């Protein structure tokens, strides 16, 4: 009986010793300790002054609060870099199944992200991520609602990039 317990304990320890740590769905190898998140420059045709800063900080904050990784400059176990490649506001038209109010528009933001995993290079990627919000100004100015739209889209984009990099189920 004692040998069985010891054997079971050794199997459990061996199993957990080779596992990764998960935080909020993130799967990060134990040996990964640092990440370098570069500034995401805004290369979109339509440029919003502080979009790059807001997006980069939202991405860093997500990594800080949902992983155990330390942020570093220069060499790191992983690196996230990229650019904002699209910022577009368009008027929407009605389709058969959509019900839109008069003056409906769509704000779309596209980000290209490159994730380099220096410990497991096969998990590296370079990919574009796009999110949008439909809105109607309805008596308000675009400038009054644009900051909230950007914030909501940034949350979704950073979640998409985070999940692609760290939640590889």
Mean pLDDT: 84
> What does the main sheet amount to?
6 strands, mixed
Q: What is the rounded Rg? A: 21 Å
CATH class: Alpha Beta
CATH architecture: 2-Layer Sandwich
CATH superfamily annotation: Lipoprotein like domain
Number of strands: 8
* Global shape: elongated
Percent of residues in helices comes to 25-40%
Q: How many domains comprise the coordinates? A: 1
Distance between the termini: 37 Å
SS content category: alpha/beta
Q: What oligomeric state do the depicted chains represent?
A: single chain
- CATH topology-level name: Double Stranded RNA Binding Domain
Strand content: 25-35%
Low-confidence stretches: 7-11, 13-24
Tally of helical segments: 3
- Element-level helix/strand string: HEEEEHEEEEH
Describe, in short, the structure shown:
It is built from 3 helices and 8 strands. The chain has helices at residues 2-17, 51-66, 142-166; strands at residues 21-23, 26-28, 34-37, 41-42, 70-71, 78-91, 104-117, 125-136. Strands 3, 4, 5, 6, 7 and 8 form a 6-stranded mixed β-sheet that branches.
Structural commentary:
With 169 residues, this protein is α/β, with parallel strands linked by helices. It has one domain: 2-Layer Sandwich (Double Stranded RNA Binding Domain). The protein has helices at residues 2-17, 51-66, 142-166, and strands at 21-23, 26-28, 34-37, 41-42, 70-71, 78-91, 104-117, 125-136. Strands 3, 4, 5, 6, 7 and 8 form a six-stranded mixed sheet that branches. Helix 2 (51-66) crosses helix 3 (142-166). It is elongated and about 55 Å long. It starts with a helix and ends with a helix. Residues 7-11 and 13-24 have low confidence and may be disordered.
């Amino acid at each position: 009986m004692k040998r069985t317990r010891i054997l079971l304990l050794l199997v459990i320890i061996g199993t957990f010793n080779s596992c990764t740590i998960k935080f909020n769905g993130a799967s990060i190898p134990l040996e990964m300790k640092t990440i370098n998140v570069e500034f995401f420059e805004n290369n979109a045709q339509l440029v919003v002054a502080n979009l790059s800063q807001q997006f980069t900080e939202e991405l860093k904050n997500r990594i800080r609060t949902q992983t155990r990784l330390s942020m570093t400059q220069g060499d790191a176990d992983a690196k996230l870099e990229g650019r904002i490649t699209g910022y577009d506001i368009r008027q929407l038209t009605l389709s058969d199944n959509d019900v839109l109010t008069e003056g409906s528009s769509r704000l779309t933001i596209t980000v290209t992200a490159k994730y380099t995993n220096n410990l497991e290079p096969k998990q590296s990627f370079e990919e574009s991520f796009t999110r949008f919000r439909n809105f109607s100004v309805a008596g308000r100015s675009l400038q009054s609602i644009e900051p909230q739209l950007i914030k909501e889209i940034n949350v979704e984009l950073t979640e998409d990039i985070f999940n692609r990099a760290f939640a590889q189920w």
